[in-house]
Recover the amino acids of this structure.
């Protein structure tokens, strides 16, 4: 299927119609790699549950030695004439002694992330330590939306609120139930609008974390993003708004807005916090259906 995402004037992004694009891509890549390892073991070796601990030069030969901690804690040394490092980002590297996030973008240190706890920039630090020149490390992108579990609003790791939710018609609202931006603007434009609104007191109040807003979808829009709605619902999200004749017991501030609309509303608390850095993405997400 085609979907319209931020900065687009038409539907031009291809995505699976009945699955999540990230899961589909990683599954397909995993299938190919597993097949290669089975059919061409002399050319390709796949190490699972292993960790790269260091790389060093093999001397005048020009080769490299990669040190790996195997699944059973065994130490492996792999030699090669060339070495490509594709290790992921540093979204969780905000509290380390040599934090890359604090060094290159200290202004984003309090932003949560959707990345896993393994993303502490280890591969980048290993590359740096053997003389690699790191570039564009300050190019950290803040994604406009993500979810937060209202029962654990302080959790550092969040769930991404996919851009698709805005692509199918989701509206971003401030604490007065008012729109404050073009939801399909570029990510930077939407983020700037969110930060500006938060500065002017437009974000939701505590106990929600800073820079928290809401996103509302009607029934038609929610149906287009059914896979996402179902997933977030299973994660413990709560319905805040129903049909126009229902009272909004949990979200009184948006009652007037919803009562004027003769559509079914799917309302979620979101935040302006998804950081992407070349290979890293942090998100401040918030979920409260």
């Amino acid at each position: 299927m085609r979907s319209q995402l931020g900065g687009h004037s038409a539907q031009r992004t291809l995505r699976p119609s009945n699955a999540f694009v990230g899961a589909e891509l990683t599954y397909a890549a995993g299938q190919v790699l597993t097949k290669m390892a089975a059919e061409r073991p002399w050319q390709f070796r796949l190490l699972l549950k292993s960790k790269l601990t260091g790389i060093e030069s093999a001397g005048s030969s020009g080769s490299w030695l990669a040190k790996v901690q195997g699944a059973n804690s065994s130490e492996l040394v792999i030699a090669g004439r060339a070495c490509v490092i594709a290790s992921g980002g540093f979204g969780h590297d905000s509290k380390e002694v040599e934090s890359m996030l604090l060094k290159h973008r200290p202004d984003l240190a309090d932003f949560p992330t959707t990345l896993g706890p393994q993303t502490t920039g280890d591969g980048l630090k290993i590359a740096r330590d053997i003389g690699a020149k790191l570039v564009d490390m300050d190019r950290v992108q803040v994604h406009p939306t993500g979810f937060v579990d209202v029962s654990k609003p302080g959790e550092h790791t969040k769930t991404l609120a996919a851009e698709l939710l805005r692509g199918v018609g989701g509206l971003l609202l401030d604490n007065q139930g008012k729109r404050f931006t073009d939801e399909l603007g570029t990510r930077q434009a939407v983020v700037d609008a969110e930060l500006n609104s938060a500065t002017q007191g437009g974000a939701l109040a505590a106990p929600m974390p800073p820079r928290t807003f809401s996103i509302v979808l009607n029934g038609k829009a929610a149906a287009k993003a059914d896979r996402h709605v179902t997933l977030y619902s299973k994660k413990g999200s709560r319905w805040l708004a129903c049909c126009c004749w229902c009272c909004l017991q949990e979200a009184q501030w948006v009652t007037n807005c919803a009562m004027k609309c003769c559509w079914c509303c799917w309302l979620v608390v979101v935040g302006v916090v998804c950081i992407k850095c070349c290979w890293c993405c942090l998100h401040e997400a918030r979920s409260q259906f």
